[in-house]
Amino acid sequence: MHKQSQWKSSTGFILASAGSAIGLGAMWKFPYMAGVNGGGAFLLMFLVFTIFVGLPLLIMEFTVGKMGKTYTTKIYEKLTQKKWLNIIGWNGNLAVFILFGFYSVIGGWIIIYIFNVALQIITFSNDTLSAVQFEAVIGNPWLTIAGQGVFILLTMVIVMMGVEKGLEKASKFMMPLLFIFLIIIVIKSLSLDGAYEGLKYILQPRLEDITMEGVLFALGQSFFTLSLGTTGMITYASYASKEMTIKTSAVSIVAMNILVSVLAGLAIFPAIAAFGYKPTEGPGLLFKVLPKVFDQMAMGQEFYLIFLILFLFAALTSSISLLELNVSNFTKNDNSKRKPVALYASLLVFVISIPATLSFSILKGVQFAAGTIFDNMDFLVSNILMPLGALGTTLVVGQLLNKDDLKTHFGNDKFKLFMPWYYLVKFVLPVVIILIFIVQFI
Ligand code: TRP
């Protein structure tokens, strides 16, 4: 068996976990969720949940990883001597499988757009990149299956070759570049005629817009962006050395996620208002609106292409981590099985992702519970499996683990945050998660 490897520096740890956590969640899912659930009210709930629920939970997952130091379908047993508790790890593993399944749909769209824009199949001059164009692209079953196949294949090759480290190095400049692009889009978007209405929509919380469903989605959104409950962050911290400060990392990840989400909101909503789109467009929102913004810029087509490549990069740093989680859980850190496991896991993901992709074309009419098959996969992961996983971990940490051990791994406590954090995790957060759960079923 391979010894668990370790990060050499805190920066490496922060970069890798941020690369994994910041992906489609903040840039693609946040604007679409906010648009469907009341704009400003959703942003407010998302911020409250992310800071008061997400952050302590992220610190909790980091602490567990640092204490347990092994793959997540084993870590609960190792920490508590209770084998059945590994079920929390398996729950996370299942979540990650399904998540990768619908994640790759969007990854596939990005790839299709990259090709279309690069080959000038889509050009800006005649305004073809409209909502209609989007429907034509996404409504094509074979094209979208091919797109997502390429996305999964890219992910698999990277994981098989074990070049994630190279990618992390690249993310040092790719991520800041993406960030600069986002800011440029925000500025352009805000300067459009009629932008103010959209700005108001996303920044002004109208309390009458808060629905119970919106509360649930906002909680799900903060879980999704912070990767909570999928055990992804536990895995990252299991490679952290004793001295690494998990609190700084957790705060940076939360701050970056909020920043990217807000920027995505500021980029999209003013443009929605300016171009007369509806905020409730759903998953296609970003893809329908952004080209219109780039269309207003000099060299828009070229900039759009660069933006799409950076966006793909952000999605890939998350998807390789999704696949990596499965690989480490099934190989149990035995590297000789890495390639076959990566292959089988990818094939399985490809199979389950097909109905998700077809939800936008031939299976559009198949609607139940939360909506299309795609919507249901997302709902199952973000609003059920992730909260369940996080709930399980709060119970383990609060009820079964030794407080002094936790304190040691929590690290230096200059600001005396350990006790408040501990009581939050022990008493408050499990109740919050359970309450929101119960409400959803009444
Ligand atoms: N947080 C990721 C995003 O915003 C999605 C995600 C959830 C994830 N759980 C994960 C990514 C586990 C990697 C590993 O896009």
UniProtKB/TrEMBL annotation:
Annotated compartments: Membrane
GO molecular function: symporter activity
Gene Ontology cellular component annotations, sorted alphabetically: membrane
InterPro entries found in the cross-reference section: Na/ntran_symport, SNS_sf, YocR/YhdH-like
Membrane topology, as annotated: Multi-pass membrane protein
Organism superkingdom: Bacteria
Keyword Transmembrane: yes
Keywords: Membrane, Symport, Transmembrane, Transmembrane helix, Transport
Xref: CDD domains: SLC6sbd_Tyt1-Like
Main location: membrane
Membrane-spanning ranges: 12-30, 42-64, 94-122, 142-163, 175-196, 216-239, 251-277, 303-323, 343-363, 383-401, 421-441
Pfam families, sorted: SNF
Family: Belongs to the sodium:neurotransmitter symporter (SNF) (TC 2.A.22) family.
PANTHER family: TRANSPORTER
Name this polypeptide is given: Transporter
UniProt lineage: Bacteria, Bacillati, Bacillota, Bacilli, Bacillales
